[in-house]
From TrEMBL:
<dbReference type="InterPro" id="IPR036513">
    <property type="entry name" value="STAS_dom_sf"/>
</dbReference>
<dbReference type="Pfam" id="PF01740">
    <property type="entry name" value="STAS"/>
</dbReference>
<dbReference type="InterPro" id="IPR002645">
    <property type="entry name" value="STAS_dom"/>
</dbReference>
<feature type="domain" description="STAS">
    <location>
        <begin position="36"/>
        <end position="133"/>
    </location>
</feature>
<dbReference type="GO" id="GO:0043856">
    <property type="term" value="F:anti-sigma factor antagonist activity"/>
</dbReference>
<protein>
    <submittedName>
        <fullName>Anti-anti-sigma factor</fullName>
    </submittedName>
</protein>
Length: 133
């Protein structure tokens, strides 16, 4: 299995691919209007944390009002990744960007609760809700 990260800004413009054959699942980032959507597939553990941080660090400085991390197909989120999401919530808020999470799995929400960052995020049950549609 491999992990694939696709970073996009605007529809169809692919900037880079990163493959890691050690990990199942994948991640992709795409710009949708003034929102960046990042889908996380599979497991987000310590091995995938640098890729998550790199993707969140690559969020455009201008024109982005929200970053949505879509965990609907994520089976596992590690404690370090949950802590990093809380840190990025604060970091992006300083730039006027709202970090939003779409979940659907009690396992993901439980990890966010355990590390104390779940309260930082509004709950979105669907991508459309997070996008404000």
């Amino acid at each position: 299995m491999s992990t694939k990260i696709v970073v996009r800004s605007g529809v169809g413009r692919i900037h880079r691919y990163v493959y890691d054959k050690r990990r199942p699942g994948g991640r992709s980032v795409a710009m949708r209007g003034s929102c960046v959507v990042m889908a996380v597939d599979g497991e987000l553990d310590l091995a995938g944390l640098p890729e998550l941080c790199a993707a969140l660090d690559s969020i455009p400085e201008h024109g982005c009002r929200a970053v949505i991390v879509d965990f609907r197909t994520t089976r596992f989120v590690g404690i370090r990744a949950a802590i990093a999401l809380g840190e990025f919530k604060t970091k992006l808020a300083e730039r006027g960007v709202d970090l939003r999470l779409v979940s659907g799995h009690a396992e993901v929400d439980r990890v966010l609760d355990v590390v104390g960052v779940r309260a930082l995020f509004c709950y979105y049950a669907s991508l459309d809700d997070a996008l404000g549609r």
